[in-house]
Amino acid sequence: MDYKLNSEDKIWLERTFDKIQYKMYAQCQRIGDIIPYISENGVYDDMGERDITWWTNGFWSGILWQIYNATKEEKYKIVAEKVEKRLDKAFESFDGLHHDVGFTWLHCSIANYRLTANEKSKIRGLHAANLLAGRYNLRGKFIRSWNSDHTGWVIVDSMMNIPILYWASETFDDPRFKFIAEEHAETVRKKIVREDGSCNHIVILDPFTGELIDNPAGQGFETGSSWSRGQAWAIYGFALSYHHTKNEVYLETAKKIAHYFIANVANTGNIPLCDFRSPKEPVKFDTTAGVCAACGLLEIAEGVPEFEKDFYVNSAISILKAIEDKCCDWDIDRDSIVSHGTVAYHDENGQHVKLIYGDYFFIEGVLRLLNKDLFMW
Ligand code: GLY
Does residue 25 form part of some domain? Predict the structure, then answer.
């Protein structure tokens, strides 16, 4: 897309991309094919050793494919392929695999397949898509989240996973996967998105009828509050459903949530609180919500008419710039870039930390604006 950027933003983007390259070059040399999650004191440990099915395990590979695509430097591709092979072990598990298989395999295998047409990657992607499709509840019309006793649970994060179903339909030339994605998106729109553009994190639906039973707080402050990363997943997720289906309802839904997000993030200098409806003190930010929402705003900009585009693009740039200004660590000897990510409002050990997905969406946002990104959704 032609972003019609002013010269100040162009210079900022080029400089930021240079800094990303220095940082990721050093990080790739240092950590290689470990599977990072949280960087503590500037050091990542290997989540792949602790839990090979953890939901964030695809993001390092996603970063590597983005940088490879932008620079064509072979070393990133080699490491990304090693990470992808390590993740094969996750397919041996059943209980560990859940609604987040999209996040994982979109970022390793589908990214690889889109760039190199690697047949093994295509097969991995199709396995993951079948696992996600197998979670569909025909009566309730939703893809269930999590395993064990979570029958009937649906979380807004799922909207970022269903693109693997759109991809499978396109790749298999079989609309079944897309039908499931569309039915699920409709259920999320009706049961999770609220009138004012805010969202629930979790709903519990009757597995026999799909009727709403409860809406627990999840990772936000409390039931009825507004977990900012959940709002970001919904913005980007609905924009991506629009991308794949061209159903205007999804674009309108993404816009409604985006307007709510933009209005709220303006209250805190474009760096989102972890929950937009939480007490004033203590102040808890979550930059991961900001960078993901920024990517979603750029995806909305692709879909809206010319006269609306600037609003979404400029909002995305304001968020990315604020986070770059206040919450980025460019020291090449320390792992991870984006600080002030928060795992969950009440997770005392996971507040204002550096999370791999914060880096992923920051990098994707910058590369999108430079037209150097790989579309892996
Ligand atoms: N998908 C889990 C989270 O956003 O923390």
Answer: yes
Contact yes or no for 362/336 (Cβ under 8 A): no
Question: Structure tokens of 47?
Answer: 């989540």
In tens, the pLDDT along 231-253 reads 999 999 999 999 999 999 999 99
Residue 309 token pair: 């585009």
Query: Which amino acid makes up residue 270?
Result: N
Q: What is the mean pLDDT of the chain?
A: 97
The phi and psi torsions of 39 (rounded to 5 degrees) equal -90, 115
Number of structural domains (the chain) is 1
Please say if the pLDDT value at position 96 is more than 90: no
Q: For residue 299, what is the domain's CATH number?
A: 1.50.10.10
pTM over 0.85: yes
Enclosing domain of residue 52: 7-369
Q: Is 212 helix (H, G, I), strand (E, B) or coil?
A: strand
% of the chain with per-residue pLDDT over 70:
100
Query: What lines the ligand 1 site, CB under 6 Å?
Result: 55, 157, 219, 229
- The residues assigned a catalytic role are 100, 157
In a domain, 332, yes or no: yes
374 located within any domain: no
Q: Are 173 and 120 in contact (CB under 8 A)?
A: no
Structural contact between residues 166 and 177, judged by C-beta atoms closer than 8 angstroms: yes
d(CA 123, CA 146): 23
Structural domain includes residue 377 = no
* Probe target for ligand 1 pocket from 219, 349, 356, 361, with the most ligand atoms within 8 Å of CB: 219
Widest distance between CA atoms in the chain: 56
Rounded distance from Cα 98 to ligand 1 centre (Å): 12
